[in-house]
Each structure stands twice: as structure tokens, then as C-alpha cells.
Amino acid sequence: MYEITAYCKNNKVTNVFLGKEDIYSEKEKELKEKGITRCESLENLLKQSFEGKNVDFSNYVDLNMLDITDFEKKVYIETMNIEKGEVKTYKQIGEAIGSKGYRAVGNALNKNPIAIIVPCHRVIGSNMSLTGFRGGLDMKKEMLNNEGIKVKKEKVIK
Fold first, then answer.
1. Catalytic pick from 39, 108, 120, 139?
2. Which residues, other chains included, contact 145 with Cβ-Cβ below 8 Å and sequence gap of 6+?
3. How far apart are CA 128 and CA 57, in angstroms?
4. What are phi and psi of 118, to 5 degrees?
5. Tens-place pLDDT, residues 89-100
6. Rounded to whole angstroms, how far apart are CA atoms 142 and 156?
7. Does the pTM exceed 0.90?
8. Among 119, 135, 127, which residue's Cα sits nearest to residue 154?
9. 28-38: per-residue pLDDT in tens?
């Protein structure tokens, strides 16, 4: 099982760290200074979601609390609409929000501070290939497999 750490402020998620990210240790002190504390109840839900269970995160999410742009917010909302067991491409996300900036969609998801809740692991390349994921491609592959999505040689099989 991968390490998943969550931080909240006023019971709303602000950060999710996957695995042993280097940034986690750097950010921890900064988060505490901002009144952002570890949220173990959310961590348990994130782990259940990782295992493929249906989890409702709506009580923990307020995108307005995140330091994100309007474009990133649109990308995250659209990505949150991807159902468990489904994938979409960066192009499909871009088109759904009225943008041809598919790379910009990828960059927004790369910055996603609340991975799993904003299920960026469900977004793939147009050629069905797995692309970068903060927790690593092995973690992305395992999460997709746990949701019933078949992956072979770093590509989603439809």
C-alpha cells in the first residue's frame, strides 16, 4: 500500500501527498504555520478510494479554499465528473471546458493539490497511454486496475 497523507483546514482538504514525495517534508512546516493540519479521517477515505471503493468526498471539498487559477478550477471540476471505472483524455477534458489547450490541462492536473479527490489518475493521453502522475505510474496503474480499468504495457485497454 502506498503512503497517502492529507491535510485540511476547517475540515476541508487543502493538500494530498502521495507516496514519499520530497515536497511533503518541505511543505509540512509551512502548512502547519497556515493552520492546516493532518486529516486522518480523510486519509482513511482516500485509502479506501485507492482500493477501488466508492467514496463520497463532497463534504471535504471546497475548491475555493485552494490556491488555484480559474482555469485549474474548471479542469478539476471536469475531472471530478469522471466516474470510477472510466477514463478521459486530456483532449476530452479540454474540449469539455471549451479549451484547445490540452497541454494546459495536463499542467493543471500536474499541479493538482488534492490528488485522488480530483481523480487525475483517470486522465490519460489520446493514444490511451498512461502519462505522468505525482504518485508514479505504478501507483496510477494500480489505482486504475482497482477501479476495473485494464492496463497493459502502460496503456489502457478498452
1. 120
2. 151
3. 27
4. -95, 100
5. 999 999 999 999
6. 12
7. yes
8. 127
9. 778 888 899 99
